[in-house]
Amino acid sequence: MERIKIISKHHCWRTLKGTKTNNFQEYFNQINNGCQLQETIFHLRDAEEMLMDLSNLSSPISRLSSTEIVHIWNELVDYLNINKITSDMGNLVNGYGLDPELALYGTELCELRKNKENILSTILNKGITNKLELIYSRGLDKSVKLKDAPQKTIDLYDEFRYEYSKSINLFSLETCPTLNIENIYQDHYVWDKVFTIAKNKLFIISGGIPLALSYHAKTLDNNIYFCEIHRENDSGLLHKRKLFNEIYPKFKGKENESWLIIDKSYTGGSIQLAYKMLVNLVGYKSKIYKVSFSPKTLGAFSSSDYAIYAGRLFDVKKTIEYLTAEDWHKKLIYLGDHVT
Predict the structure, then answer these.
(1) CB-based burial label for 80 (10 Å; 0-12, 13-18, 19+)
(2) 144-309 has which fold?
(3) Structure pTM?
């Protein structure tokens, strides 16, 4: 926190000291101590639209053969290199080591989606014939309405919503994304594989909620837990009146029970923080597995025990020796043909 001078020129130049902070917990503490909000500054990320993500492919590409998938990827990369994206079409998202994804960003999501359709129609103009059943597809679409899920899954979400809503401002209950999920990921055979890894499953809010509900709809597993970790850009921050800094529901099992932590992963940092939180709760006697869903970097993949990449569950230790930094993101597509 930084102490600053605050001058209210429309209140007779009333002058006093105040505090400047970008830490939400510090803000909460100061408000609870009687301080008042003076000024806000918003930093907004542009809208994003994924052109193609090898780590979690979308339909209809997700139902093609590995050879066809990699061919389309290479064609798309060549197209983008030859036909430079202009600013009115959006811009390509850049990042360090983000090998599996090609994404557009811009100020209007509807325009990005139109441009995506135009670009992909050029690449996919020969038509597509599905090779895989949806349940074995090379990615999980968030295409299932929650209202169509099993009643036990809906009940699980309702119980979570009740607990999480205690952290949310009353005026945000109907707008907070975490409390108003409509779609979950499709039914997929990979969830049966995840079920066998460990007894207890810890999902990280907020991206982990649709994952958890999809997993539960497939397995009806009762041993599901949630925690919230945001290393940066918590998009739900303005909805909150306090931080949700616990593992829910309260764990009442034994110290030596096995766990897995699962989350979408760019670097693996959030999973590592959840690991530390879980160790503080259950101790070091418990076996804890890290599972990265749709890892976007080789580092995120290699720092996990298991990874769900392109609709296949990989044992990282058994897979990493076959990968190189140059083409790991495409190699995993082919290796997925040998994962049962």
Answers:
(1) middle
(2) Rossmann fold (3.40.50)
(3) 0.91
